[in-house]
UniProtKB/TrEMBL annotation:
PANTHER family on file: 3'(2'),5'-BISPHOSPHATE NUCLEOTIDASE (PTHR43200:SF6), PHOSPHATASE (PTHR43200)
Name recorded for this polypeptide: Histidinol-phosphatase
Family stated for the protein in its record: Belongs to the inositol monophosphatase superfamily.
Gene3D superfamilies: 3.40.190.80, Fructose-1,6-Bisphosphatase, subunit A, domain 1
Highest rank taxon of the organism: Bacteria
NCBIfam families on file: his_9_HisN
GO MF annotations in UniProt: histidinol-phosphatase activity
Catalyzed chemical reaction(s): L-histidinol phosphate + H2O = L-histidinol + phosphate
Enzyme class (EC, first level): hydrolase
Protein's pathway: Amino-acid biosynthesis; L-histidine biosynthesis; L-histidine from 5-phospho-alpha-D-ribose 1-diphosphate: step 8/9
Known EC number: 3.1.3.15
CDD domains with a match to the protein in the record: Bacterial_IMPase_like_1 (cd01641)
Length: 260
C-alpha cells in the first residue's frame, strides 16, 4: 500500500510534520525550560518530546504502515519498506541558549535509500527540501551546491571541535587547515548552506541517523554527495562519521586527507 504514495503525497506529509514540530518548538523557544540530560549526556527539553509526539501522531494517521525512527521516542516498525527519520530539534544546545541555528530534520527512506530530505529552520523562516529526481528548494526557490572542486578553495564547516575524539579531530584539523576557510557552529544549518552553495564541505562525527539522513536527502537532491569517512553511502547502520561535499572531486580529496 505504501508504494502507491506519490512524491507530492510524501512532500505534503513532510510539510505537515515540520509545521507540527514548529508549533511546539517555537512556542517554547527562548522561554525557561526544564533541561534533562539523556544517557548520551545531550540536553533534551519538553519541546523536543512534545514536537516528536505531534509528528508521530500525524504519521500514525497518514502513514500507519511506515516505520518511524525518532530521536526522542525511538524505533517503530523500522523494518518497514518506508521509514520516516525524525529529529524534532537538531541543535538542542542552540535551542536552549537562544541561538536561532537549530532546525527540524525529516528524512524518508525507501528500502534503505533516502527519497526525501528536509531541513526546516523555524526561527529563520527557511524550509529546505530535497527529493530524489526532483531537485532541491529553499522556500520554493531552486538551490544547487557550488561547483567547488578543490580543497584549497573550499569553505568547510562543522558544529564544534567538541564532537570529535582525539584521532578524528586530528584528521579534521589536517583537512580543514588545507581549506580556504573553516567555520564552527550552525548545527544542521551547515548542511542547508552546502545545499545552497555557500558552504562547500561539512565534516562531522558522532552523529545518529536522525542527524544525517534528512540533510543527506537535501544535499543529494541539490547535486552534492554525502557518505561516511570511508566513502560508503549513509544509512541507518552507519558509524556516525559524515562527509558532505559539493562535488565528487572535492569529496575524494577530503576523504584522502581524512585518511592520511
Amino acid at each position: 500500500m505504501s508504494s502507491t504514495f506519490t512524491p507530492a503525497d510524501d512532500l505534503r506529509v513532510a510539510h505537515a510534520l515540520a509545521d507540527a514540530a514548529a508549533s511546539h518548538s517555537m512556542r517554547l523557544f527562548r522561554t525557561p525550560l526544564d533541561v534533562i540530560s539523556k544517557a548520551d549526556e545531550s540536553p533534551v527539553t519538553q519541546a523536543d518530546r512534545a514536537a516528536e509526539a505531534a509528528m508521530r501522531e500525524i504519521l500514525g494517521a497518514e502513514r500507519p504502515a511506515d516505520g518511524i525512527y525518532g530521536e526522542e521516542h525511538g524505533l517503530e516498525r523500522v523494518d518497514a519498506e518506508r521509514v520516516w527519520v525524525l529529529d524534532p530539534i537538531d541543535g538542542t544546545r542552540s535551542f536552549i541558549t537562544g541561538s536561532p541555528l537549530w532546525g527540524t530534520l525529516i528524512g524518508l527512506l525507501r528500502d534503505g535509500r533516502v527519497e526525501l530530505g528536509m531541513v526546516d529552520m523555524p526561527v529563520l523562516g527557511e524550509r529546505w527540501i530535497g527529493q530524489a529526481h526532483g531537485g532541491a528548494q529553499r522556500n520554493g526557490q531552486a538551490v544547487r551546491v557550488s561547483g567547488c572542486a578543490a580543497v584549497a578553495e573550499a569553505r568547510i564547516v562543522t558544529t564544534s571541535p567538541d564532537i570529535f575524539d582525539a584521532a578524528d579531530w586530528a584528521a579534521f584539523d589536517r583537512l580543514s587547515r588545507r581549506c580556504a576557510m573553516r567555520r564552527f557552529g550552525g548545527d544542521c544549518y551547515g548542511y542547508a548552506q552546502l545545499a545552497g552553495g555557500t558552504i562547500d564541505l561539512v565534516v562531522e562525527t558522532g552523529l545518529q541517523p536522525y542527524d544525517y539522513l534528512g540533510p543527506t536527502g537535501l544535499i543529494e537532491a541539490a547535486g552534492g554527495i554525502v557518505t561516511d569517512w570511508q566513502g560508503q553511502p549513509l544509512g541507518l547502520q552507519s558509524d556516525g562519521r559524515v562527509v558532505a561535499a559539493a562535488t565528487r572531486e572535492l569529496h575524494r580529496q577530503a576523504l584522502d586527507l581524512l585518511a592520511a
